[in-house]
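We close this part of the discussion by returning to an individual protein. Part of our work consisted of pairing the sequence of a single chain with a tokenised description of its backbone. No coordinates are needed to read the tokens, only the vocabulary itself. The amino acid sequence and the backbone structure tokens for this protein are reproduced below:
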Amino acid sequence: MEDEFRHGHLPSAYHINQFKPEETRQRLQTLDPTRPTLVYCALGTRSRETALLMLELGFQDISILDGGIHAWLQAKLPLTK
């Protein structure tokens, strides 16, 4: 969600509000489906749902950050604001 993104995110990340399905679909359609894409959320649940939608939209190389941003932080990896 927006607050999670403001607290810190991976470099070059896009915030997409999954709770607004039409907005989510529109934002995803602005991205290049041929580029490798990493999808993540706080814990990993919402990112799986988004990845399924991306597959429907023709994305070819999707990875999901296992454990979400919480796992990233536990590994003491950096975020950007």
Notes: The CA atoms of residues 33 and 59 lie 4 Å apart. The chain has one domain: 2-74. The chain has a mean pLDDT of 91. Helices lie at 2-7, 21-28, 45-56, 68-74.
